[in-house]
Amino acid sequence: MFQIDVLAALPTELILGILCMALASPWFSTWFVFVAVTCFITTLMWSFVYLLSIREALKIPINWVLSELIGTGIQALLYLIAFIVLFAATAGGYGWHGYGANVAAAVFGIFNTAAYAASAFILFKEHKSSVGVAA
User: Fold this and answer.
1) E strand or H helix at 91, and its extent?
2) What burial letters (b/e) apply to 48-57, b meaning 16+ CB within 10 Å?
3) Residue 21 belongs to what domain range?
4) What letter does residue 96 receive in the DSSP assignment?
5) pLDDT of 1 over the 60 cut
6) Looking at the predicted structure, is the pLDDT value of residue 74 above 50?
7) Membrane-crossing residues (predicted)?
């Protein structure tokens, strides 16, 4: 059984991901756009896993909470690196076309990093409680 807290964070991550993809220019940082698109697709896949009850339908011995915890933690780390790279790429470009949009994308990248980190923390607490019960 999953906690509703994890599902509540998904729309936030998806909306922030859409903003990051829409605002970021691949001319400033291809890495940021790659991370935004990859994390968006992965989060969308996890939301379908929850909404369509695929976890319960598959009888595969996978620790779903741990696998999502690892994935969400990696996404938080990738977003952390990506917004720093985007800020560094836009540092010398004041006045260039798209400068403001890329700075806004980097700021939304900070918010998305916080959202993924919060989701990872919630998943960590859920994983620790499920390991404590199973042991």
Assistant:
1) none
2) ebeeeeeeee
3) 4-134
4) S
5) no
6) yes
7) 7-25, 31-52, 64-91, 103-124
